[in-house]
Amino acid sequence: MFLAMNRFKVKLGSEAEFETVWRERDSHLKTVPGFKAFNLLRGPSKEDYTLYASHSVWGSREDFEAWTRSEAFRLAHRSAGGNKPLYVGHPELELFDSVIALSVGDAAA
């Protein structure tokens, strides 16, 4: 399993607009080989921003990398530049390879 996360510092007062952008966009992820799940997470608010993270789960790093080179990726990100006024700074990409994975129904370790 492979996880890709982007952290966004969203300007205070822009949270609803940011969430609407994500809720209404067509990510095209459901058609991409290796895609498993997506979550948009809202974190704590600071003096000038609220922290968000987009969290996608992939079958492998190769699946994720293939998506970043795909037409689906280009379509999903075609208007991303128009959202810059919502952010403090740039989104921060973080990539993770799964080392240990547990889920409901797994036998006790």
TrEMBL record:
GO MF terms, alphabetically ordered: monooxygenase activity
Swiss-Prot/TrEMBL keywords: Monooxygenase, Oxidoreductase
Pfam families: ABM
Domain ABM: 2-95
PANTHER family: SIGNAL TRANSDUCTION PROTEIN TRAP (PTHR34474:SF2)
Protein name according to UniProt: Heme-degrading monooxygenase HmoA
